[in-house]
Write the structure tokens for this entry.
Amino acid sequence: MILDLAADSPFSIHTLPYGVFRPSATEPARVGVAIGTAVLDLAALAATGHFDGPALRGGNVFALPSLNAFMALGRPAWDEARGRVQTLLAPGLNGRPLAPGVAEALRPIDCVELLLPAAIGDYTDFYSSREHATNVGSMFRGPDQALLPNWLHLPVAYHGRAGTVVRSGAEIIRPRGQMLPPGAPTPVFGPTAELDFELEVGFFAGPGNRPGEPISIRSAANHIFGLVLVNDWSARDIQRWEYRPLGPFLSKNFATTISPWVVPLAALEPFRRPGPPQSPEPLDYLRDDSDWAFDIHLAATLQSEAMRVAGMPPLVITRTNFRHLYWSMPQQLAHHTINGCAVRPGDLLASGTISGPMPDSRGSLLELTWGGAQPLELPTGETRRFLEDGDRLALTGWCQGDGYQVGFGEAAATVRAANR
Ligand code: CA
């Protein structure tokens, strides 16, 4: 196979995201890198001696059905692998022949089965967008109590459910549960009427830490392997009834969709930017003078079943940016471990919904329709307060370089009717 690299391909030579795939139903899953419209089979390259450097020591970690072992090796191995893959693919960018074994290790992405990239032991969801927290707090508690007193002092989070993180494409079954209709004296039971998405970006932890030994904010870069798009599906009516005092439970733990390709931190370096100013100044363990925001364009599209039948393209319903986040990834990691909590390779730490400052940059339907009061209009004439059965919701993200993209691909799923 030859390299096919369009200028607007999300998977340029500057991206080189890692994923796990099965070449065919009879072959074992292994690690690959996306390039253009192809997957480069790293297990096949390792078997022919292409990863014999000191940190990778043969690259056996690529012949496994998850990225966890590779994540555990740490930054020297990550840098070595990325450098090696860039060297192997570089001739193909100029139309020159690839080294023996490399062309044979390329497979069309459309012909392989993409799997979850990691065996996720723990999933933590932060709440790090000031705009999102302010919007939701205003709706749930009123504008006077929008930001609770702790919010500007620590990155608020809760423990999500790792076992229900699913790959892009897996369908989402509308959850059922308890909710208290407005003005009703007692709760009712049924399918959620307020199914929502949350546009988030998550990162996978690298080597991790021993219990009792926090990850310092200054060493965080060695513990952030790479980033994926995250849709933290939410049932708002169930959430509103259950969330006090311990936070969301059944309103969010039924499914979380992630994109299949993990974009390494190294690929994002050209897009590093200063984050929003923080006031009041955080406590010492959360302080870091380096820039930890990244200019990642984010968007969500919605396509109803009727739009699909009519051949209408998905409608962009929001555009936002990762750089709006108030709390950075190192602050999240430092805070998560400051009490001695151990983080392990393959743990997923998500940002929380990323909303921007403008009404059309809000990262959930709850905010875009302001609790359903301002429904979205679709090109078919349909309206949406929340998601309906048959809706396909897709998140996408990309960094725009000079003539190239560092793209995340897509985290997408279609909503199915509740089980009876
Ligand atoms: Ca969330």
